[in-house]
What we know:
The structure holds two protein chains of two kinds. By secondary structure, chain A is of the alpha/beta class.
Amino acid sequence: MSRTQVLATTDEAVAGIADGSTVLIGGFGLAGMPFDLVDALIRQGATDLTVVSNNAGNAEVGLAALLKAGRVRKVVCSFPRQADSYVFDELYRAGRIELEVVPQGTLAERMRAAGAGIGAFFCPTGVGTPLSAGKETRVIDGRTHVLEYPIKGDVALIGAHRADAVGNLVYRKTARNFGPVMATAATTTIAQVSEVVPAGALDPESVVTPGIYVDRVVRVVARHYTVQGAR
Amino acid sequence: MALTLDELAALVARDIPAGAYVNLGIGHPTKVADHLDPTQGIVLHTENGMLGMGPAAAADQVDPDLTNAGKVPVTELPGASYFHHADSFAMMRGGHLDVCVLGAFQVSATGDLANWHTGEPDAIPAVGGAMDLAIGAKQVFVMMTLFTKRGTPKLVPHCTYPLTGVGCVSRVYTDLAIFELGPNGATIRETYGITPDELQARLEIPLTPQA
């Protein structure tokens, strides 16, 4: 199955996600977070999930709501602790969720490697720190590197700005963040967008994620949310 | 007199070369941006995928799709560009950023950095982009107070907190002095409200006076 499906509802878009799946969830804080897809995943009911995302949820929306619903066994992320990450914090302190902390660039590159068919890569980030403890190292050009393995998702849930009918995506400002990388790294990539346009309506030179990486698209009504730190 | 945070930020800003690509991390170092000279053509990178970041957004400019690494709403300057996370960190790791400025819990005399985790049992570890920045930027500056609130030095022989990077910090800006770090230890560049001898008495590392 290759061609992108444009679906009418988020419930159709998340159909079939299995218990125990590894789910890549886009977003940096709230920017780019596919809220509607995550809400649909909560309704869909899949559980025992491993979630890969930069953060571990804000307040009680998006990823935090998924955590609160008890569907997540393990979080792989770079920065779980935030001013409003209390849902994760409580689960973690109660020993009810596993955490793997990964340096942010290594997190992105491990997913990039998965999408690009790279078996593993040597990376200088984290050398001599607890996050590289026990990992294989090699000195290359006089510098120590750590061997890092890909992170592959069963599913990626991402937020983009606009899709065309064949699944090409463009993003908006810093909400792009992990979307293009996660789209390549999952067996099934599901994108929520603010607008779907006919094929030919996106400038091919401007496409950020080519439709080959995108399996399902659903249009959602843009949601307004409060940004922390706004002044 | 010891320096205020704003005075310290101004000193860091003064030392950033014209035309540099710079990452200011999160928290206190972001204050450096307020002191950059707009005519110097310094370009700010934010790890979440932007070059050409402008000042924090005023209330009527807030766009939830445009934030900095601290998730604070910001603005874009003419010539800005957006890119995804793997590209943003390739920029760091690949040595394309000239300077990054980070906060720290501890820095060792040979430039080891500890700034992500106190190691306390109930602390939730959160590293973000700190390790990538520490090893990636051509120069890593640290901006911090020289002593904790309890008076314990933060410039130390060996870091006791979990490390962020090894031998990566080249310069430390503190409220009491600026230090250059290298394989041979720390050199005092300037002092503020304290003499080099007084500094040496309060720190457990050998200090080389300014040449």
